[in-house]
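Sanity check. The docking grid for zinc ion depends on where the pocket ends up, so I'm generating a full predicted complex first rather than guessing from homology. Inputs follow.
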Amino acid sequence: MKFSTEAISKMAEIMVSAMQQNGLEGEGVCAVEMGMREFLREVGVQALGRYLEQKDEEIQEDEKMCVCGEAMNYLFQRKGTILSIFGRVSYRRRYHVCEECHAGVSSLDRHMRIEAGQVTAGLAELLALAGVEISFEEGTRWLERYLLFRVSDNTLRKETERFGELQKDQEAEWIKNSQNEKWLQQRQRELGKQPGRLYGSLDGGHLHLRAVQVWRPWSASGASSRTSPGIEWSRSALTTPALAGGARENGGGTPSE
Ligand SMILES: [Zn+2]
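Predicted complex below; grid placement will be based on this.
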């Protein structure tokens, strides 16, 4: 995704002014960065709502047929609310209702793959990632620090379970097709287009020792006990490509795909 430098610059200017108006200039950087995150979150809530309303105006409406076979009538603009990555977002969109069975439908919701009253796909993915790793109670506290709003235990549980069901369906599909040669070749072609990913282990690698300027073998389990007095472990080495290279040479990593 690319954004214009001009738009980013204008936004930055607005943020600086908002922080100054809140009297944050005398505070440490922590208060300022948290203030900026909260500002971005609130901008996101409003921007997503406005984006959806604009999109609703752009969508061409054909005559809608209800599942019961009757034509649906445009009734009114109805408010919808979704729980997004930025928090609760409200928007208004055109709504059609069937006079026969009273079923209602919104073209925008269908087009954008959203469901009023539900969590968006973007947030659902984050919730499921947290839900599979830690308890729901701990997860909601943990997520609040990242998202800056609270998600209930129930929502976290529901999205994690839904993710688990999707995963189960996906695996069932893989098992079903595992003997289908055409499907396997097609999948191989698709996977071939994806960028590679390297998984590695830090148990066997090399760390840069500043004092002696050499690369020494390092083990996660006994690094500190083997450190000679006066040798400083280089923290930056943990993020340099040299470490990744070292891990590969040492056979500690398991490349996949
Ligand atoms: Zn109907």
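Relevant for the grid: The chain has eight helices and eight strands.
Also worth noting: Residues 202-256 form one domain.
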